[in-house]
Amino acid sequence: QKEVEQDPGPLSVPEGAIVSLNCTYSNSAFQYFMWYRQYSRKGPELLMYTYSSGNKEDGRFTAQVDKSSKYISLFIRDSQPSDSATYLCAMTLNGNNRLAFGKGNQVVVIP
Amino acid sequence: ETGVTQTPRHLVMGMTNKKSLKCEQHLGHNAMYWYKQSAKKPLELMFVYNFKEQTENNSVPSRFSPECPNSSHLFLHLHTLQPEDSALYLCASSQEAGGGYEQYFGPGTRLTVT
Fold this sequence. Notes:
The structure holds 2 protein chains of 2 kinds.
Chain A: E1 4-5, E2 11-14, E3 19-25, E4 30-38, E5 45-51, E6 54-58, E7 61-66, E8 71-76, E9 85-93, E10 100-101, E11 105-110
Parallel strand pairs in A: 2-11
Antiparallel strand pairs in A: 1-3, 3-8, 4-5, 4-9, 6-7, 7-8, 9-10, 9-11
Chain B: E1 4-7, E2 10-13, E3 18-25, E4 31-37, E5 44-50, E6 53-57, E7 64-70, E8 73-79, E9 87-94, E10 104-105, E11 109-113
Parallel strand pairs in B: 2-11
Antiparallel strand pairs in B: 1-3, 3-8, 4-5, 4-9, 5-6, 7-8, 9-10, 9-11
């Protein structure tokens, strides 16, 4: 069983739609959950960061963590063409520097 | 993106060559990382340095040799690579090596081994 599962897509949506991305994981000890955004020919940049379970909202972006189901989600409301990128989920144990990444999910927002 | 810089951005090398990748962080961080990113695969952690000391080697072949002369600079020395080593090599830094510290990535070096 892979440590982190993420459907690589690609996912194409029309501008203004809601984008829904998710990852599942196998290690119940993970405590920190992150979403990175990676534009073509760039390095990943941290988009959202959540500790333990719950929701976090930042503008058009919402991150959800359900530790009981080992499932995390990222929602992008009112998607824009500039949101077209690859989104990677990542997670780590408490006090451990090793991030476990998903494969990344390519999102294309069509104008 | 200027917080972590990487050079060169692109590198083509033969299997018998020796080359080095360079990473520099301008964020005052104490931990630096090398990752390998291949198509359709998750990011793979290769090495971790915390306060210039290597704290993790994730079973990386010896043809990859890291060097961290200070907390701001990180090198990856390459020799006798294989075609399957072709990938995007990413450098990252964080305040310290530990859970909960945000990692900042550089733009990567696109390596092609011929």
